[in-house]
Write a structure and sequence with these properties.
The complex is a heterotetramer, with 2 copies of chain A and 2 copies of chain B. Chain A has 5 helices and 16 strands. By secondary structure, chain A is an alpha/beta fold. Chain A has 2 domains: 117 residues, Elongation Factor Tu (Ef-tu), domain 3 (Beta Barrel), CATH 2.40.30; 108 residues, Nucleotide-binding domain of ferredoxin-NADP reductase (FNR) module (Rossmann fold). The relative contact order of chain A is 0.13. Chain B is globular and about 60 Å long. Chain B has one domain: TIM Barrel, CATH 3.20.20.70. In chain B, strand 5 and strand 6 form a beta hairpin. The chains are: A alpha/beta, B alpha/beta. Chains in contact: A-B, A-C, A-D, B-C, B-D, C-D. At the B-D interface, helix 9 of B face strand 14 and strand 15 of D. Bound molecules: flavin-adenine dinucleotide (2 copies), flavin mononucleotide (FMN) (2 copies) and FE2/S2 (inorganic) cluster (2 copies). One flavin mononucleotide sits at the interface of chains B and A.
C-alpha cells in the first residue's frame, strides 16, 4: 500500500518542478522522488533522489535532515541526519549511502522508486580544500565512508590527488571503493578479517604517505580510534586535518542546541553544534566521539 | 481576504503564528522568510554563560520526543550585543525569553533586556527541569505572583509569562500572573518526563528528566487555554502540539489570540510559513473576515446535557 | 523460566500485568483467558445507578483518544449481586474500583464492597471530570488524606489508591495517601483534556472535557512513578501507555511493582496475554530469574554530570 | 512501500493457519490476508479477507472491529466497527462493504491483495429469524445495506423469502443488488433521483407487501427516516422488526460504555451498548439514531 502525506502536518516542501517563492534560501525542505534504493550489502543501502535544483548546492561533508517514512505504521517523530553521498548535478539527483540501524533507517529501506522522500538541507559546513594542497589522505570506516566519499568528487574538481584508506570488517562490507576509484582516488582497503586494519598497520600506511609527501591534509570520519591516530600523526607532522562528527539532532539549523560535541580550543574545552558549527571540524580540536 | 492580524496588548502581530522559544533562531532565515512570521521568539537567555545539560539532550519516545537542553547560551551581554542585532534585521516584533534562579536577578535581567530592539519580555518561569523555587516558579501561585511583580517593577516592555503544564491548578497561577502585571500568558511549556532505556537500564537523557514534546499533548494544553481564557482578561498564546492550520483555529476557538510552534518546525522546517498560508485559506473558504472572530468562539453554551437525548441523535 | 509473580502488600499476583479500571470487564473472557492475568480490575462503581455522560463519549485526537464516560453503572447493589459473581468465576484476585462524591459515602461504599469475593478495594479518587472536592480528591493533599483515612477506617481489605496526573505535586499526594493507610498507589488516571471541532466549533465530547489516553503520555506517568517510588514505601502500579513488554520493564525499572493496561487492550484485544508472554521471554533471554529484580533497578546513581565529558563520548 | 506491524504493539492475532491456544474464544483477534479490495463505486469498496476458521462463525448483523492501516504515516488510534458483509465458509473468507469516510476507511482503501489486516470479532448480537416467519421485508440505505445484505444469506439458509428495498441517491450508487439477487431475494430499487425513494412511495411499497402477507418481519439499517417509517407501520400492523444501529466505539466488548444508544423499554428510556447489547435491536425500542 502506498503512503500519502499525513494530514496532521503541513506539506510545503519543494518538488522537482516547483517555483521557489523564497529563492534566497540557503536551505530547503524538498520532496525528492526516489529513483532507486538498492542494497549495497547486508547492512547498507544506497538511495538516489531526483530533487529540486536548489538541493544540488550541497557539497562534500554537508548533510540533509531526512523525514524517514514509518517502517511500521507508527510515526517516526524526528528527522535523521545523513551526509550527502553524491551530488549528481547533470541528472538533478542527490544520493545517500546509509546503514540500516533503527526505525528511521528501516523506514528509508522501504522506499521504492517513485516514492516521495522529504529531505531538508543542505545543512552545516562541509569539507574545505586549501588551494595549496596537492594530495590529501582520507581515512574512513563504516558509515563514515558515506561522508568522506564526496570529498573525492570535490578533490577531483579541484585537481587534488586523493589517497583513500577504507577500513572495514571484511571484504563483504567494504564500501564506496568504486566511487573513490571512479573519481580517480588511489584506494587501499584495510580489513579486520586479515588484521590489516589494526592501528599499527594504518599508522604505517599513513607514515608512508607522509614520507612521500602524499598527505598535505588528513580527513576522517566514522571511527574514534582512527581519529585519535590521525590527530597524533597530524600533530607530530604538522598536517592539518578535518573530521566529520555525529550527534543526535533535532533542528539541524543551529537553534536547539541538542547536537553538542566537545572541542578543545586554545586549551579550553567548549561545546559546539554539530549541525551548524560542523559537521566538519578542525581535526585537532575534536575531543572525541 | 482575511485580516490575519491580532493584537497582544499594544503589540500588533501581522498573523497569529510565532515560533516557540528554544525551537527557533534567526538562523531559520536560511529556510523561511522570517518577515512572514507574527513574531520572532528568541531562545531563553540567562545571565551567565551556560553549557547546558549533559548529552544526550533528546530521545525519541513512542509518540514524540523528550528533551532537556538546560538553557545553554553565551550569557546576557553577548545576547544583547550580538544576538539581538541579528533579530533586529527582521521586521516582526522580537520576543526575548528570559529565565533566572532568583526573583531579584530575574527582574534585573528583564531590565537589562529592555533595550530598544527588544519588543517583548517573555518570562520563562516554567523551565521543567529547574526546581520550583529556582527558575520554575510557575508551579506555585505565590512564587509566580512574587516573580512577576518584581519583573513588572523593572520593565515597561510588554511582559509575557510562560506557564507550566505541570502545575496542578493553572487557572490560579494564571490569575496570579495577571494580577501581578502580566500582559499576556503563554500556555504552556513542556511536560516533565522520563524515559528509561530497557537495554541498559539507564535514563535516556543525560539530565535524566526532560520535557515531553508531542502533538499528542495538544488536548491537554488546549484544555488549559480554555480554562484560563474563561478566567483572565489578558490575551493568551497557546503553545503545544500545533502542527497545522486547524490547530491554530482550535486554540483560537478555545480563547487563544495566537499560537507558538516548536515541534512542527522541526518536522517541517517550512511549516510556520505554510501554516500562515493555510490559515489564510481556511478563513477565506469560510468567509471569515478577521481571524480575531475566532478568539473564544467555541460553541459551548448549548450543549445537550441529557444523555438519553444525546444518545438518540447523530454519531 | 522467570518467576513473574509480584507481591502487592499481602496479595500475590501471578504476573505484573492487569487491566486498567474502566477499560475491562469479565466479558473480555470472550477473547482472552482471564485466568492468565495478574488481577481482574472492575470498572469504577458508584452507589446510585448512573447513566453516565452525554454521547459522544470518545473522540480520536492526533495521537490518542479523549474519553468521558461519566462512570455509568447499575449501582452498588446490582454490582455486588450480579457483577462480583461474574468475576468470581475466575482465579486472579478481583480489584473493585469505587468512587463517590463525598468522603462519608466513599467510606461507606468501601465497607459495603468488602464482601468475600472482593480481594482489593481501589479508591478511584482521580476521576478527571469530577470536581476537586467531589470525587476527584487526588488534586489535593488534604482531601486525599481525609478521604483515604475515612475509607481505611471502614475496610480491612487491601486498599489501593488511584492518583491523578493532573495534580501538580503528585509526590506529596502520594505520601498523604500512604500516611492515611493506602496499601498501594495506582499511578495514574487520565489527563484532563479538550478537543474542539473546527468544522462546527463545538467540543467533540458530549461532556466537553475528557481524559486523554495515549501511549504518548507514558514518559510523563513514568516520571511520576519514578518520583513517587523514591518517596514512598508501599508498592506502585504504573498505568499509562503500556502497550508492550518493554513498557512493563520500563515502569518496573522506575519503581513500579506491576502495571495496568487500558488502551493497548482496545487496540489489540489479545494484548494483555501477549504482553505477559513477551515479558516472560524478555526476562528469560536476559537470564532474569525473578521479575521483581527489575523493580526500581534503574541505573541512575552514576550519571555523568559534566556536559563537556558527556559530549565527547557515544551518541 | 510495504508496512509491517508496529513494534510498539503486540502481535498476537491469529493468522489463517495458526493453532488457536484458546479455542474457547467466542471472539478472536485475527490477521486476515487481503484477497481483493475492489471499488464498488466512487464511494464504496469491497474487501475480501482470508481468515482463521474461528472468524467464520460470524453471522448476519454481527460486526468486526477493524484495525485500519494508516492512510498517511500517522497512526490511526482506534479500531473501526464494520458489519460483516458476507461469510464465505467454503473459501474461508469474510467480506466487508465499506464507505470511504474518514481516515480509517481511507486507510482500508489502500489495502492490496496479500496485505495483512487485523480484525477482531465477530462481535455483538446479529439478526435473528423466527422459525414462524416465511417472508421478511428488508429496507436499507447507503452503508446500511452492507449490514442487511448477509440477512439474505441467513434467510436463504432458513428458507425464508426476502424482499429487499434498496434506497439510494441515484442508480450509480445502488449497492448489493447483485448479492441480494443471487441469494434469491426479490429486490426493488428506490432512488432520490426519480423521487421513488420518498417516504410516501416506500410506505406504499411496504403497504403492498403487508397486504400480500410478504412481510412477517421488518429489518432496517442506514436511515433514521426509514427506521421511523418501519416503526410506524410495524406498530400499526403488529409486525415485529429489527434494526441495526451505529455508534462510535472503543472496546467492542461491552466494557467501556462508549457506544450508547437510547431505547424505550416499557415506557422507560434506557441506554444500551450497541457493541454488545446490539448492534441489532428490537426495532420498536429504538428511539433514534
Ligand atoms: C552529520 C551526520 C551525518 C551522518 N551521515 C550518515 C550517513 O551518511 N549514513 C548513515 O548511515 N548514517 C549517517 N549518520 C548517522 C545517522 O544519522 C543515524 O544512523 C540515524 O539517525 C539512525 O537512525 P535510526 O532511526 O535508524 O536509528 P535509531 O537507533 O532508531 O535512532 C534513534 C534516535 O537516535 C538518533 N541517532 C541514532 N544514531 C545517531 C547518529 N549516529 N547520529 C545522529 N543521530 C542518531 C536518531 O536521530 C533517533 O532520534 C549521520 C549522522 C550525522 C550526525
Ligand atoms: C455496528 C456498526 C456497523 C457498521 N458497519 C459498517 C459497514 O459495514 N460499512 C461501512 O462503511 N461502515 C459501517 N459502519 C460505520 C463505520 O464504523 C464508520 O464509517 C467508520 O468508523 C468511519 O471511520 P473513518 O475513520 O473512516 O471516519 P472518521 O470520520 O475519521 O472517524 C472518526 C471517528 O469517528 C468514529 N466514527 C465515525 N463514524 C462512525 C460510525 N458511523 N460508527 C461508529 N464510529 C464512527 C470512528 O470510529 C472514529 O473514531 C458501521 C458502524 C457500526 C457501529
Ligand atoms: C529543543 C527544545 C528546546 C526548548 N527550549 C525552550 C526554552 O529555551 N524556553 C522555553 O520557554 N521553552 C522551550 N521549549 C519549549 C517550547 O517553547 C514549547 O513550549 C514546546 O516545545 C511545546 O510546543 P510544541 O508542541 O509546538 O513543540 C523548548 C522545546 C524544545 C523542543
Ligand atoms: C474508556 C475508558 C474508561 C475508563 N474508565 C475508568 C474508570 O472507570 N475508572 C478509572 O479509575 N479509570 C478509568 N479509565 C482510566 C484507565 O483506567 C487508565 O488509567 C487510562 O486509560 C490510562 O491507561 P492506558 O494508557 O493503558 O489506557 C478509563 C479509561 C478509558 C479509556
Ligand atoms: S540539531 Fe539543533 S542545534 Fe544542532
Ligand atoms: S464499544 Fe465499549 S461498550 Fe461498546
Amino acid at each position: 500500500m502506498a503512503l500519502v502525506t499525513s494530514n496532521n502536518y503541513t506539506n510545503s516542501a519543494l518538488r522537482t518542478g516547483d517555483v521557489d517563492t523564497y529563492p534566497e534560501r540557503k536551505v530547503g525542505e524538498f520532496i525528492g522522488t526516489v529513483v532507486s534504493n538498492a542494497s549495497v550489502n547486508d547492512e547498507y543501502k544506497h538511495v538516489v533522489l531526483k530533487v529540486h535544483p536548489q538541493a544540488l548546492k550541497a557539497y562534500a561533508g554537508q548533510m540533509f535532515h531526512l523525514l524517514c517514512p514509518s517502517p511500521d505504521g507508527a510515526e517516526v517523530w524526528m528527522r535523521r541526519p545523513m551526509s550527502v553521498y553524491r551530488v549528481d548535478r547533470t541528472n538533478g539527483q542527490i544520493e545517500f549511502l546509509y546503514k540500516i540501524e533503527g526505525r528511521g533507517t528501516r523506514g528509508m529501506a522501504l522506499l521504492e522508486p517513485g516514492d516521495d522522500f522529504n529531505v531538508a538541507g543542505p545543512l552545516g559546513h562541509g569539507f574545505t580544500l586549501d588551494p595549496s594542497w596537492k594530495n590529501i589522505a582520507v581515512l574512513g570506516r563504516g558509515v563514515g565512508l558515506a561522508t568522506l566519499a564526496p570529498l573525492s568528487q570535490l578533490a577531483a574538481e579541484n585537481k587534488v590527488g586523493v589517497t583513500a584508506i577504507l577500513s572495514a570488517r571484511n571484504p563483504g562490507v567494504v564500501m564506496s571503493k568504486k566511487l573513490f576509484d571512479e573519481l580517480g582516488a588511489r584506494t587501499m582497503v584495510v580489513l579486520d578479517s586479515d588484521n590489516s586494519s589494526a592501528v599499527e598497520n594504518v599508522e604505517k600506511i599513513l607514515g608512508d604517505l607522509i614520507a612521500r609527501r602524499q598527505a598535505d591534509a588528513f580527513f576522517t570520519c566514522g571511527s574514534n580510534r582512527l581519529l585519535k591516530l590521525m590527530q597524533r600523526l597530524g600533530k607530530k607532522h604538522a598536517i592539518p586535518g578535518q573530521v566529520a562528527m555525529e550527534q543526535i539532532m533535532v533542528c539541524g539549523f543551529g537553534a536547539c542546541y541538542v547536537c553538542m560535541r566537545t572541542f578543545e580550543v586554545d586549551g579550553q574545552k567548549v561545546l559546539r553544534r554539530v549541525c551548524r558549527d560542523g559537521p566538519v571540524f578542525n581535526m585537532q580540536e575534536a575531543v572525541g566521539w | 481576504m482575511v485580516d490575519l492580524s491580532v493584537k497582544i496588548g499594544d503589540i500588533t502581530l501581522q498573523n497569529p503564528i510565532q515560533p516557540a522559544s528554544g525551537a527557533f533562531s534567526w538562523e531559520y532565515n536560511d529556510v523561511i522568510d522570517l518577515n512572514r512570521l507574527g513574531a520572532l521568539v528568541a531562545k531563553t537567555i540567562c545571565r551567565e554563560p551556560r553549557l547546558g545539560n549533559p548529552t544526550p539532550r533528546m530521545a525519541e519516545t513512542e509518540a514524540g520526543i523528550i528533551q532537556s537542553i538546560g538553557l545553554p547560551g553565551k550569557g546576557i551581554e553577548y545576547f544583547v550585543d550580538h544576538i539581538v542585532p541579528e533579530y533586529a534585521k527582521f521586521k516582526p516584533p522580537l520576543v526575548v525569553s528570559v529565565n533566572s534562579e532568583t526573583i531579584e536577578d530575574f527582574a534585573a535581567l528583564a531590565e537589562e533586556l529592555s533595550v530598544p530592539d527588544v519588543d517583548v519580555i517573555e518570562a520563562n518561569i516554567s523551565c521543567p527541569t529547574r526546581n520550583q523555587t529556582g527558575g520554575n516558579f510557575a508551579m506555585h501561585e505565590d512564587y509566580t505572583r512574587d516573580c512577576i511583580t518584581a519583573i513588572r517593577a523593572k520593565t515597561k516592555k510588554p511582559l509575557w509569562v510562560k506557564l507550566s503544564p505541570n502545575a496542578g491548578d493553572i487557572v490560579s497561577i494564571a490569575r496570579a500572573a495577571e494580577a501581578a502585571g502580566a500582559d499576556c500568558l503563554v500556555i504552556a511549556n513542556t511536560f516533565l518526563s522520563l524515559k528509561i532505556r530497557t537495554d541498559n537500564f539507564r535514563p535516556a537523557l543525560g539530565n535524566k528528566f526532560g520535557g515531553l514534546v508531542s502533538p499528542a499533548l495538544k488536548p491537554i494544553v488546549l484544555r488549559m487555554v480554555y480554562q484560563v481564557a474563561k478566567q483572565v482578561k489578558i490575551p493568551i498564546i497557546g503553545v503545544g502540539g500545533v502542527t497545522k492550520a486547524e490547530d491554530v483555529v482550535e486554540y483560537m476557538l478555545a480563547g487563544a489570540s495566537a499560537v507558538g510552534i516548536g515541534y512542527a518546525g522541526f518536522r517541517n522546517p517550512t511549516a510556520l510559513v505554510q501554516i500562515i498560508d493555510d490559515l489564510e485559506a481556511w478563513c477565506d473558504e469560510r468567509g471569515i473576515k478577521k481571524v480575531t472572530e475566532l478568539i473564544g468562539a467555541v460553541k459551548d453554551a448549548d450543549m445537550e446535557s441529557d444523555p438519553l437525548v444525546a444518545a438518540s441523535v447523530g454519531v
